[in-house]
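Newbie here. two chains, one complex. Structure please?
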Amino acid sequence: MLRSLLSDDLPRSRWLAVALLAILIGLAVAPFLFPGAKSLNVAAKICVFIVLAASFDLLLGYTGIVSFAHTMFFGIGAYGVAIALTRLGPGWDAVAVGVVAGLIVAIVLATLIGLFSLRVRTIFFAMITLAVASAFAILASQLSDLTGGEDGLNYRLPSVLRASFSLADGTLFGVRLNGRLLDYYLVYFAALALVLVLLRIVNSPFGSVLMAIRENPFRAEAIGYRTVVYRTIASCIAAATAALAGALLALWSSQTNPDTTLSFDIMVDILLMVVIGGMGTMYGAVVGAVLLVFAQNYLQDLLAIANKALAGVPLLANLFHPDRWLLWLGVAFILCVYFFPTGIVGRLRQKR
Amino acid sequence: MKRDWIPWLLIPVLAIAALPLIGSPASWVTLTVAGLAMGLMIFVMASGLTLTFGLMDVLNFGHGAFIAVGAFVAASVMLAMAPWMTADSIWLNLAAIVPAVLAAMVVSGVLGLGFERVIVRPVYGQHLKQILVTTGGLIVAEQLLKVIWGPDQITLSRPTALRGAFLLGDVAIEKYRVLAVVVGLAVFAALALTLNRTRLGLLIRAGVENGEMVEALGYRIRRLFVGVFVVGSALAGLGGAMWGLYQETVTAAIGAQVAVLVFIVIIIGGLGSVGGCFVGALLVGLTANYIGFLAPKVALGSNILLMALVLLWRPQGLYPVAKR
């Protein structure tokens, strides 16, 4: 049962298994264990980013191609739902329309970019996606009639998902059973399902071909696999999953703006998640996403303490300014690429 | 081998095709000069990147960091020399600008040397890691810039002599753009002369064509590469300083922003080709300005559109480098 659920890709390391279980259970009971708006927000964000990072890992870790346009697809999914909810009003039909429209746009764009640039080399694809993504981000903030420009969109969620909706009277373990709780579990289970689907994909024969292409594209082509086609399909799957992650974010936060969905900062976050967690394993993306969202929200507090301790020293204090958390993760990222190319998960599996 | 002039012809063709669309010759001249100035600034920044790629197959995604550093260093020097910048004499203005630009180039160059040693060298020949590590370098560099210069943007005003415009009849040409064109052309001429007329240039071109052969003949291509990398970084610093003066503001994100244009240009030009990079930069600069005037809404996509068109015509860029 468990084996088939995980597509025969077990953690293969005691500590990794413990960590994954902790994440699974921790996120499942988060609303009750850590009540409060901020921690629930962090938990939901972790779920969304796990999916996003896992879908990026399909490209980076399994297929060996670097795309800088992953946030674009994330944004397309988020804006799809956001625009539909703004235009059609808060209903499930609007959500469905938004999700489907976002998926279609994402897949079409991914196919176009893929066919255009995947026949050449990794570096070409990386540069072209970077260019397209930055143009798209500017476009989104420019088309303010549709997207709300820089401010983004604020919209109402379907009534079942709002805080005012009450599931049952009274409380469970001191937590009110309202629409937000329902919304959180929607995000949680959707994320869980998507990760399992991705796990299924990478452990299928199709996934093996992707890994063959990563290891030696020339040889894969020689054996008879059309590498362009496989790479394009992989980037379409990744784009579609990223769009779904975006839709989940839009359904959670009831506002969508360029900063939270399209900016290059998010792209950098995803890169860090996948590389630090471990490329080429879905579990790496999961671990990395949890770590990074935690760091984003709590490393700042740690840095603030260090900053205070160094208040007198001019440059050093700036180095530990709470806003400079990305500096430290960036250094960790570079060290990871050099010394632990398989990331945290790879390390854990080695030790076993 | 016959020289391939068609891509060069695209520049005048594009400019002439735009004339009837724009209508008034006066604004056409203004836009063309603006486009050339922008294109040449991008060329200055992009030339080093395309050469390092051609020579060692290394694409530095952190190139934007050198651009940003150049802009910041130049801005600091110029702000420190504020009295000379606002003086009425063109010589005093130049006395402030020249050291600022030189400082930008030196700091970027030295940084390039360190970047090559620490970030790039351990990952030769591994594209995926190169992209990842150099992107990491960009992230760290951008954060360090914020540590040193603070997170806020720096406002930088042009010196007195470079403000305003020359008026020829009803044609207005901004003075700074003329300077940018002159500097850009000088850099292109210097690069072209070095590459085509000197022994060093011969070795670099040979290295781009076939590095192994050059090594087999007893030349150390690694040393050449480090030299090219440093010069490329210094040029990026120069371009960053010019771009900062052009925009009159400097932010830590400037590197990443301009780097996108730089990438588009070197893709259009053909990775590794300086001539292609020059043509690509001018095409991008001109298109951006013409389209920005004709249809501001589409302007953002114009670069991407240009890139797509060029790649449909020549999938490897305007001047594909032989072996790749």
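Moderator note: The radius of gyration of chain A is 21 Å. Chain A has a mean pLDDT of 86. Thread marked as resolved.
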